[in-house]
Write a structure and sequence with these properties.
Layout (H helix, E strand, L loop, with lengths): L3 E14 L3 E8 L3 E7 L18 E8 L4 E10 L8 H17 L7 H15 L5 H15 L14 H12 L12 H18 L5 H9 L1
Parallel strand pairs: 3-5
Antiparallel strand pairs: 1-2, 1-4, 2-3, 4-5
Helix pairs in contact: 1-2, 1-6, 2-3, 3-5, 4-5
């Protein structure tokens, strides 16, 4: 008898498997990061074709095979279609997903990580936010969520506005994470702090980040 599993998640990795299948990495609310196979997803007309694209978000019905999860059914509620035409935004999103993949753990409670990634993808879509600021706040909040952000005093002396911005990012709910604005000078302080933390904490080359920075 096969075991079935229903999860809410977002596709953060898509890879060809065999002639017609896809191997997916899905960041889920209930089971953390997991790998699942979608059989026939690369066939023309497959019902899994769009549903297993990068950044597809929704409910995945999985069944457990002998060695892996397999996709039985999918109900997608957000495809983030804007990323298909926004090249710069797409690479920001790829970088966000790559960071989430770095921190995601199979079987863990990654609900906050999933919510943070989803909110950052929404930020890319927003005309009120610039992508570089979305990235900076995403990075900083991610390090807070993972419990790895060190006291700001460790970075040197910053003005009160920078300290308050860091405090807000650390303490605010993810839903309200981008509900504040700061000057360009403060944005640069935050960007620098995020970069120092990323280099300290992430011991992996981020291919999407290399491409993104070469574009910018």
């Amino acid at each position: 008898m096969q075991d079935f599993l229903k999860v809410t998640g977002l596709v953060i990795g898509v890879y060809p498997q065999g002639e017609y299948d896809r191997r997916l990495v899905i960041l889920t609310k209930e089971q953390g990061k997991l790998t699942a196979f979608a059989k026939g997803a690369r066939r023309q007309g497959s019902r899994f074709c769009a549903a297993t694209d990068m950044f597809a978000f929704g409910t995945f019905d999985l069944y457990v095979g002998r060695t892996a999860y397999n996709v039985q059914d999918v109900k997608i509620t957000n495809y983030f279609e804007n990323l298909r035409t926004d090249i710069e935004g797409a690479y920001y999103a790829m970088y966000f997903a790559e960071l989430a993949d770095f921190y995601g753990v199979e079987g863990a409670d990654d609900a906050l990580l999933l919510l943070l990634l989803y909110r950052a993808l929404q930020g890319i879509k927003s005309e009120k936010l610039d992508n570089s600021f979305v990235r900076t706040v995403y990075e900083l909040k991610l390090f807070f969520v993972e419990g790895e952000f060190i006291p700001i005093e460790s970075f040197g002396n910053f003005c009160e506005a920078t300290n308050k911005a860091i405090e807000y990012i650390g303490e605010s709910s993810i839903e309200k994470l981008y509900s504040f604005s700061v000057s360009d000078e403060i944005k640069e302080d935050l960007r620098m702090i995020a970069e120092v933390e990323r280099k300290r904490l992430v011991d992996r080359k981020m291919k999407s980040l290399e491409i993104l920075e070469s574009m910018l």
